[in-house]
Specification:
339 residues, alpha+beta
Length: 339
């Protein structure tokens, strides 16, 4: 029986994912997530991201009309990190956290989401991501540019204004560091990129595909850890978003938007998710083996029910999925946005 007591290999993470889809319907009397609340206004005078408002730093936002990027007022890394640190005790080690953190507002409207922007606005955002990757990655101290969005209260977003964050750091985040090594090994062993093989397999199988265009696609991967986890990326294997041409970028914008709209239509609610751009480090090395893609990790496995990370994941270090990727892909396909 597919999806029950099965392990699936995650080639990007080099780990097994336990698929136990029969557990999704187990009795549940624990905590549930409530959704709803009052509708957001188009402009919020308290919002530090809305046009014309002051941020916590005292800087006033311009009356921007499109995408707006600025340095984070509360950065996790910074160019002013102390050059000398107090030595770590004993056998431990430490080092400075150098880099730059930025916020990118998608739109001046406070009440919009990435899913509700039109294709041109999503494409403009992707163009901004390209520019930020090139600019920040060109800095000598920056080895990695991580673009991510936390969307929804249940994933800890501090401001509902549509925005993402960029961390340009003097280190490579661990997930990407591991992915780089695995992609390099795959190319050396097979003569093909891991992303190319993943795309080819999903296209040939077809059961987990959500959207397919000539230059972009979206699918629930065979090895999905979260119920509605989705990969969105170009058909062509490229190391970063900066390598996409205008046609590929526009196709990616259409597919990403359609995927997010599927999420919202699925449970008829603003669907929470964590989105991260997986792209090559900017450390000067050859990263031809790396395959840029966007990963979407929605934490809901059913309306009101979160996928909690507990004993198997936190304690044991292996992911247990309560759902079957083929079933979740079918649900998302059925939630297609209007043509």
């Amino acid at each position: 029986m597919s999806g029950v007591w099965e392990q699936r290999w995650h080639p990007f993470r080099r780990e097994w994912v336990v698929i136990a889809a029969h557990r999704d319907r187990r009795p549940w009397i624990g905590e549930t997530v409530r959704h709803g609340g009052p509708a957001l206004p188009a402009y919020d005078p308290r919002c530090t991201f809305c046009p014309g408002n002051r941020r916590s730093s005292g800087v006033r936002n311009p009356d921007y009309a499109g995408v707006f990027a600025f340095d984070n007022d509360h950065p996790c890394v910074g160019p002013d990190a102390p050059a000398e640190l107090q030595p770590a005790p004993g056998s431990y080690r430490n080092r400075r956290a150098d880099g730059l953190a930025r916020v990118v507002c998608y739109h001046p409207r406070h009440d919009l989401r990435l899913a509700s922007l039109d294709v041109a606005a999503v494409d403009a955002l992707l163009a901004c991501w390209q520019q930020q990757y090139r600019e920040l990655g060109a800095r000598p101290a920056v080895r990695h540019v991580l673009v991510f969005e936390n969307n929804g209260e249940v994933v800890g977003v501090s401001n509902p204004h549509p925005h993402c964050q960029i961390y340009a750091t003097n280190f490579v985040f661990k997930t990407i560091e591991n992915e780089v090594a695995h992609c390099d090994e795959h190319l050396a062993a097979h003569g093909r990129t891991l992303w190319d093989d993943c795309v080819r397999t999903e296209l040939d199988d077809g059961r987990r595909l959500l959207d397919v265009e000539a230059d972009a696609l979206a699918f629930v991967p065979y090895f999905a850890r979260y119920a509605y986890e989705t990969f969105v990326g170009p058909r062509r294997s490229v190391a970063s978003i900066a390598a996409l041409d205008d046609v590929e970028r526009l196709a990616l914008a259409r597919v990403l938007r359609a995927t997010l709209q599927r999420f919202d239509r699925l449970f008829d609610m603003p669907f929470p998710y964590v989105m991260a751009l997986h792209q090559a480090p900017t450390d000067g090395r050859d990263h031809a083996a790396f395959g840029f893609h966007v990963e979407l990790h929605p934490p809901l496995r059913r309306p009101g029910l979160l996928k909690y990370l507990a004993g198997p994941e936190i304690g044991g270090g292996s992911f247990l999925s309560d759902t079957c990727p083929e079933d979740k892909a079918a649900e998302l396909r059925a939630a297609a946005p209007p043509a």
